[in-house]
Design brief:
The structure is a homodimer. By secondary structure, the first copy, chain A, is mostly helical. Chain A contains six helices and two strands. A two-stranded antiparallel sheet of chain A has the order 1-2. Chain A starts with 8 loop residues before the first helix and ends with a helix. The structure holds a DNA duplex.
Chain lengths: 128, 128
DNA sequence: AGTCTTCTACGAATTGTTTCGTAAACAAAC
DNA sequence: GTTTGTTTACGAAACAATTCGTAGAAGACT
């Protein structure tokens, strides 16, 4: 049984920062956040405290300035978000999602090639 | 400029029903909804009224029993949902999303083949 | 020690979503 | 025409997410 991870959009922004930077203080996270959105410091603090309550973040309170880090893996979180979206908006069809994503986005030749190779690797696995 | 479509999860459930069934009454939608969740009739009604205010649904009030239909296309809605998710959870990389989706889900050989063909068609287009 | 800054904690206001009770309009059935 | 059932409209309650002001603790600076 694996835990249900359902971050809100704001929470996901914070998780992204922590995944990229590793363990950080509220101030460090806030400084990154400030670049893209307009929010006060205590707003970021409160959000991260709530995320800690929800077990999305771990924190080290040994020092006055607490250190937070993601308590959920990027991969697992992405997996669950995708799955929910496939169920909610794509009638459960991964294929539909993938095609929509590719068709929508005007991927570069390099990207398409990368995906094609990945696909072949997977098809190969099926033959074993 | 195309309109921003941001349905909540509940709203998306209703959109899915209307996309599948076409124009329907509140009761018809509610009866489908009831199968998967537990909500009163007036809850469904209110949701659909709000969706009409938000221009997610059109309605025909010629008769006492109103007829609702989706005012946004499935394709456009799916496209926007995917794009938001790519930006919010996949660092803007469609490739990352596609690989995660494929890797996660254990797609069947047929599905993989279908996607591979789609890919080739796209790569072909790039050469024109 | 006293001042200044930084940080956490708390609580409240705001906003948005979801839920449903109740009433009024309307139609159908008796 | 009065009862019964279905529908819409309205309003309010319950809940969750977001925002931020304020207070107090902790440390740094002189």
């Amino acid at each position: 049984m694996s835990k249900l991870i359902k971050p809100t959009d704001s929470e996901l922004e914070i998780l992204n920062i922590l995944w990229a930077k590793g363990p950080s203080t509220v101030r460090e996270v806030h400084e990154v956040l400030e670049q893209s959105k307009d929010a006060g410091y205590t707003t970021t603090l409160k959000l991260m405290q709530i995320m800690h309550e929800k077990k999305l973040l771990d924190r080290d309170t040994a020092n006055k300035t607490h250190i937070y880090k993601a308590a959920v893996s990027q991969k697992q979180t992405q997996g669950q978000i995708i799955q929910r979206m496939i169920d909610a908006a794509f009638n459960g069809s991964t294929t539909q999602l993938v095609m929509q994503a590719l068709g929508n986005h005007n991927a570069s030749k390099e990207e398409l090639e990368q995906i094609r190779q990945y696909l072949e690797k997977m098809e190969g696995k099926k033959d074993e």
